[in-house]
Design a protein that fits this description.
Keywords: Membrane, Transmembrane, Transmembrane helix. The protein is built from six helices and no strands. It has 137 residues and is an all-alpha fold. The radius of gyration is 17 Å and the shape is flat.
Length: 137
């Protein structure tokens, strides 16, 4: 378990760092937004797929994560130049919070069932208010 975490934690930290579009900004100026964000993301995903995921036996539906990751990169390439990095990331977090609340409420994916209550709803509403404030011109 700890051996797996030694690999996973640095990968997650690296992915979070790269998601901030730190590396892609200089490349984007020289080669266009598709080359700056799409190609490095695709290469990183392929690296993970071939050297980390494929050697393990996983259910086929879990490989959908790769498709969703590519969709995430595609959407971010289109949206970030229009609304900015902070608003884009905040919108992603809001979407993840809503979806994870649904998963928790119904106990999907084999997780513990955690009811959706007013406290959680208030948190989501406040996050959407913050998103509106960030996006408002």
């Amino acid at each position: 378990m700890i051996g797996v975490m030694i690999v996973q934690i640095p990968l997650l930290v690296t992915a979070g760092y790269l998601a901030g579009v730190v590396i892609g900004q200089k490349l984007q100026r020289k080669s266009g937004s598709w080359n700056a964000n799409g190609i490095p993301g695709l290469l990183f995903g392929l690296f993970i797929l071939f050297f980390w995921i494929l050697p393990r036996s996983v259910p086929k539906w879990q490989l959908l994560g790769g498709v969703l990751g590519a969709f995430y990169v595609f959407v971010m390439v289109l949206i970030v130049p229009k609304v900015g990095v902070a608003t884009s990331i905040m919108a992603v977090v809001a979407g993840q919070l809503v979806m994870s609340s649904i998963i928790d409420h119904f106990g999907l994916l084999g997780g513990q069932q955690i009811p959706f209550d007013m406290r959680r709803m208030t948190g989501i509403i406040l996050l959407f208010c913050a998103l509106w404030l960030f996006y408002k011109k």
